[in-house]
Structure formats: C-alpha cells, structure tokens
Design goal:
There is one protein chain. By secondary structure, the protein is mainly α. The chain folds into 2 domains: 61 residues, Arc Repressor Mutant, subunit A; 135 residues, Tetracycline Repressor, domain 2. The chain has 10 helices and no strands. The longest helix has 27 residues. It starts with 8 loop residues before the first helix and ends with a helix.
Length: 213
C-alpha cells in the first residue's frame, strides 16, 4: 500500500549545509546525540525534542539543519556508511580473497557492534523507505567495485557470472553479520568463523573454475 502521506525527498535533506566550523560541530553533535539516543531507546522512541535536549540546543536550532526526525536518521545513516568506506578501500586495495575476506568480515562485525545506533537503525530499515533505498544503493556500489576488481584479475570471465558470485557473497556476509548482532559475542564470532571457512572455499572453488575455462 502506498504511503498516504509521502514525504518529499527535498524535505528529508538538511535545510542548511554547514560551512562554518561552529555549524559543522553542531551538526556533528546532533548526529552523535541522535545515534546514541537511537541505541538507547530505538528509532521509534527517539524524538527530535529529546535529541535537541540531550545535545543542549533548542529545537529551533535543530530544525535549522534537519526539518524532521526522518532527515536526522537519514543523515546518521549517511555518516555511518561514510565511516565504513575505509574498510572497503582496504579490502579493494589488497584484494586478498583469502586473508582479506576474513579481515573484511571481522572489520564489518566490529563496526556493527561498536557504532552507536547502527543495529537499531538498519535492523528496521524496511519501515523507513529512505534507509532501504540507501542500503541498496550502497550495496550495489560496493558490489560493482568488487566485480570490477575480479574482472581485472580475470578479464575474460563472464561478467554476468562474476556478478552473481559477488552478489551472493556480499549478501551472505551482510545477512550473517546483521544476524550476528542479536547474538552474544562468543556465539556470533563462532558463527562468523564458520562463515569465513564456507565463503573462502566457495570463492576459491568458483575462481578456479573460471580460471580453468
């Protein structure tokens, strides 16, 4: 069913792009406070008035930058995805599909565990269409970059087949790590260790098949 009160995309964006250091610090404070509040009470219970109170600013000041709660959540999510960029950069730089794959899974898991509000926001992203779209765009972006790196190594491989392999591995990693968030740390690490073995074997086998053709 279509949303009876759709929010225009431009209303979700920041009202004012801060250029002065003071304004940038204020936006950073708002986003950090929002993430911590979401981690504490969840997305639904977090309110702009409570974010403003904890950030020690007026609600009017918060609304100078963010017109509503959804725009705050969207900005927090964007910042989280930006903070993950170095993890992917390191993986793509070394592109070690054995040791590097293990390290990628470990670093993603550590980030998901430590980043305030990450689990609470992304676990319920289907209720926030903007987050679902952002997640898909981010997934396709990184999957595309990994695909291109594989094709640099195997330039004569079938691109569609590479796409399918990368999509399967990427989706499996994402699903397993997000599932690990609701487990205790020991159980989660044990499960992910098994996942590493499974994925490395799969990747090794499939690349050997592609190279032998």
């Amino acid at each position: 069913m279509a949303n009876p009160n759709p929010v225009k995309q431009e209303e979700l964006d920041q009202r004012t792009m801060p250029v002065q250091a003071r304004s940038m610090r204020r936006v950073d404070t708002i986003l950090s406070t929002a993430a911590e509040l979401i981690a504490e009470v969840g997305v639904d219970a977090a309110s702009t008035s409570e974010i403003a109170r904890r950030a020690d600013i007026s609600l009017a000041s918060l609304y100078r930058y963010f017109p509503n709660k959804t725009s705050v959540i969207k900005a927090v999510a964007e910042r989280q995805l930006t903070r993950l960029e170095p993890v992917y950069e390191n993986f793509l730089g070394d592109f070690d599909l054995d040791r590097g794959l293990e390290q990628l899974i470990d670093e993603l898991y550590a980030f998901y565990r430590s980043e305030p509000g990450y689990v609470q926001m992304w676990s319920g992203m289907q209720a926030i269409p903007e987050l679902a779209h952002m997640d898909m765009d981010d997934f396709l972006y990184h999957a595309g970059r990994i695909r291109n790196r594989v094709l640099e190594i195997l330039p004569h491989a079938d691109a569609d087949e590479i796409d399918a392999i990368v999509m399967m591995v990427s989706r499996t990693i994402g699903s397993l790590i997000r599932h690990a968030m609701v487990m205790d740390d020991t159980s989660a690490r044990n499960m992910l260790q098994e996942a590493k073995s499974m994925l490395k074997l799969y990747v090794r086998t499939r690349l050997e098949e592609l190279e032998s053709r």
